[in-house]
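Q: What would this chain look like folded?
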Amino acid sequence: MKHHDEWHLDRIKEECGVVGFYVPGEEVARLAFFGLFALQHRGQESAGIAASDGGKVRMFKDMGLVSKIFTEQILDGLPGHVAVGHTRYSTSGGSEQRNAQPIFCVTVVGEMAVAHNGNLTNSAELHAELRAVGQKFETDADSELIAVLLMKYMELGIDEAVRRTMAKIEGAYSVAVCMEDRLIGFRDPFGVRPLSLGRIGEGWMLASESCAFDPVAARFERDLMPGEVVVVDSTGLRSFLTDGSTRGNMCLFEFIYFARPDSVMYGTSLYQARFRMGSALWAEHPVEADLVVPVPDSGIPAAIGFAQASGIPFGEGMMKSRYIHRTFIQPDQRMRELGVRMKLSPLRQNIAGKRIVLVDDSIVRGTTTDQIVRMMRENGAKEVHVRITAPPIEHPCYYGIDMASREQLIAANKTIEEIREHLGADSLGYLSVDGAMDAVGIGERRFCNACFTGNYPIQVSSTFDRDGIAKGVVGEMATVRSGQGLLEVE
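A: My prediction, written as structure tokens:
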């Protein structure tokens, strides 16, 4: 059972993480486990691994953290040299067992498991079209649509099935597919969601982020291009671009917050990008202060950049509990309201009597930041100046980020001065959109920044209401089997 405290409600939620492996002679389910473990930050609701030994696809998935779901016995029951894994935070479809991934199918060319990161923007239309011809669904996750379409077109051949599926679906997606004898990966034509390719021994690996390569001794090769498809089988790796491929609109929030700071995307270190965002914040919003304090952990690189650019000392003003979210004891209402205090403990001796610059990655509703500002003041801070590496978030995301509706986004309803007053800060400065993009340092501005600007690169359909809330589609599906435990097809 999920519970929400103020911290969870006011943080932009992770998306999902996917991994894929094709390594001849290896038992890759264990590699998938460690790859998912490295991507745990992208989703903590459920996880699953599907593996093939060349003749049968077996799968296990459940609710919870990767380390809690998989045991030695379970991994031993997933033999084979081909595998995909998924760790999930729900954006389309609820946080339920049936929506856990991968999604399992039986196709005309064999068994298949599909893992997907992102959101489809035309899922309502596709569900209606498929239901009209008798297709039934057992989940309300749009990932099932991808599996159904691949299954539907597989009689035309694997390459053509992927091409036709990508021609039908719209939105943001990175997909890893485990078939009996091959691994497939593909990325939406706009390149909104990330997917990287690496070498591992004599085989290949796919992952949402490059940070998943090091734990399994894989070597990062490159990012998949927008609209690119890679297929790995006994003949090696081949790739092709689908119609409609673009130069890309990579999610800018990956660089600001989502991806781990030790990941590399488009040749850019996420840590260095966030460091440069902090330097740019000082250039755009200088202030006289005594100490630069990060909101841990995501605010740390930017706070260091701000401190070095300004000459103001960097120091910790609060400590983050890394275990509070792992308790099985549900907090009561009063403790939920104290969610920030359950996770962050002030270091009074560091902040008392000082003018503080508080650096964080984003403000969504404002209910977390105002508690942190209050905490600083209660522990003796003379002044609190808030600096944010994300521009004001004024629009909901339709592409795989669980972001509040427009009416809940504080920047969509208040001026910056009104937000400052709401937070109780002495000053408030957001990094500009141009400043954030320049700090990434890619060269070309190939980003989706719709949550800041309202300029959506992919058309949004009736799948979503006007506030950006996904409309669920619920039903039954006989041809896709999912659920807890190992799946064996007779």
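The chain has a mean pLDDT of 86.
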